[in-house]
Design goal:
By secondary structure, this protein is an alpha/beta fold. It has 4 helices and 6 strands; from the N terminus they run αββαβαβββα. A 6-stranded mixed beta sheet has the order 1-6-5-3-4-2.
């Protein structure tokens, strides 16, 4: 009799222990689920916040780019410029030329300074490659010419040469863009270079500025 009661008690304890184990296992499963869920929420918030921060930064960059895209004060814009390679002289509508048909050989424009007038059709080809061409006439002061030479020599994708038939002492030309200034002190010169050396107006960005004509 006593033996039967002892067996029954042991069985009852095992049943209770098993029930406790199942309850503990269930709690552990719930805790894991809660942890995973909360982790997912945190990650989603972090990702969402990060996405928002990236988007905001991109919007700021675009706003700055739009602001920077405003024309340089006083610059002229020329559109619908042809880009054919020709072997005959070209009658350009502006002086110096800022685009149009041009010679198949470009002028070297890796910070090259020329002391004599150069082929205009060759220089236009350099503009097609993203160069800025600085020209000056006899009204330019010697100190300004010297300052501009130093600027060009330290700026890839630029070239400089005298050009008698222009209206202002100094002219900066990029493909489809031109700015006339009186002296090298004009702050718009640096703005023009920053904007248009390999700028968005460039028909052939990344094209060579070496390996062309040097005189």
């Amino acid at each position: 009799m006593g033996s039967s009661n002892a067996k029954a008690q042991r069985a009852d304890r095992r049943a209770k222990l098993e029930e406790l184990r199942r309850a503990q296992a269930a709690r552990e499963r719930r805790n894991r689920l809660i942890t995973v869920t909360l982790s997912g929420v945190v990650v989603a918030v972090l990702i969402g916040g990060g996405w928002y921060m990236v988007t905001a930064a991109q919007e700021q960059d675009r706003a700055e780019e739009r602001a920077a895209a405003q024309p340089v004060k006083g610059e002229k814009t020329f559109k619908d410029l042809s880009r054919n390679h020709v072997t005959t002289p070209v009658a350009y509508k502006m002086s110096p030329a800022v685009g149009g048909d041009h010679d198949q050989a470009w002028m070297n424009c890796n910070g090259d300074v020329y002391t004599q007038e150069i082929g205009e059709a060759n220089a236009v080809h350099s503009l097609e490659h993203g160069a800025v061409w600085i020209t000056y006439n006899d009204k330019a002061a010697p100190k300004d010419i010297s300052a501009l030479e130093g600027m060009v020599e330290n700026t890839p994708y630029t070239l400089m040469s005298p050009y008698a038939d222009q209206a202002s002492p100094v002219t900066l030309s990029a493909w489809g863009k031109q700015l006339q200034v009186d002296s090298a002190d004009d702050p718009r010169i640096r703005t023009f270079l920053d904007r248009y050396v390999q700028g968005e107006q460039t028909p052939e960005p990344g094209a060579a500025c070496t390996g062309g004509k040097s005189a």
